[in-house]
Amino acid sequence: MPEKHRRYFLKDKEARILLNKAPEKLRSVWDQVVQGKTGLEVVETDFAEIFLINGRPLLFKAGDNVYPTLIFTEFLTFAPKVVVDMGAVPYVCKGANVMAPGIRRFEGDFRKGDIVYVVDEKHGKALAVGEILHDYQETKNVKQGTVVRNVHFVSDRIWEFIKKS
Q1: Per-residue b/e over 44-83, b at no fewer than 16 CB within 10 Å?
Q2: Domain ranges of the chain
Q3: Alpha-carbon dihedral sign for residues 106, 91, 89, 30
Q4: CATH match for 6-71 among 3.30.413.10, 3.40.525.10, 3.10.450.120, 3.40.228.10
Q5: Could you list the pLDDT tens digit for every one of the 165 residues in the chain?
Q6: Cα–Cα distance between 72 and 133 in angstroms, integer?
Q7: Kind of pairing, strands 49-53 and 40-44?
Q8: Cα distance between residue 78 and residue 145, in whole Å
Q9: Which class is domain 75-158?
C-alpha cells in the first residue's frame, strides 16, 4: 500500500520560522544555497516532514528539530564529518549510532549537539546525518561508547522516500 503524503508551499513567514529551528551552521549555508527567492515546499508523511527547496529535498523535520538530508551536498561541503572504518559501514547504514572504536578521524570543528555527516573512509560517501554527543576536544579522549547519534541514514524511510520522488 503506498504511503500517503500531502504536499504544499510554505509562506515566507513560515519558511523563516522553519529556518530559525535549524542549527546555526545550517543557517549559515542557507543563503549560499538559496540565492534569492525560493519555492519552499513541504511534503508531510507519516514519518517526517520533508522540505523541498526549489524542488530538491534538502531538509527534514523530526520532532522539533530540522536536519539536512543526505543529498544536501552544499551543506555536506561545509559540515563537520566523522570518518568511520569500513567495518562500521553496514551498521551505520542500518541506523546504528556511531561508536568510538569505529571512528578513524574527524574533519572540521564542532561542538556538542552539532550536526555532522558520517562518511566512509574509503570513498568519503555520506552514510548518515547525526548529532555529535561530545565537543571536539572531548572526542579525542573517548575510547568507547556512542559518539554520534544517528538521525538519518542511507536506507531509512526518508532516504527511500527521496529516492522514489
Answers
A1: ebeebbbbbbeebbbbbbeeeebbbbbebebbbeebbbbb
A2: 6-71, 75-158
A3: negative
A4: 3.10.450.120
A5: 356 788 989 888 887 777 777 777 676 676 666 655 567 899 999 899 999 988 889 999 888 888 999 999 888 888 899 999 999 999 999 999 999 999 999 999 999 999 999 999 999 999 999 999 999 999 989 999 999 999 999 999 999 999 987
A6: 22
A7: antiparallel
A8: 26
A9: mainly beta
- What's this model's pTM, rounded to 2 decimal places? 0.89
Alpha helix (H) ranges present in the chain?
12-21, 24-34, 73-78, 89-92, 136-139, 157-164
Q: Are 80 and 92 in contact (CB under 8 A)?
A: no
Position 50 scores a pLDDT of: 95
Is residue 20 a contact partner of residue 12, using CB atoms and an 8 Å limit?
no
Q: What share of the chain is helix, strand, coil (3-state, %, to 5)?
A: 30, 35, 40
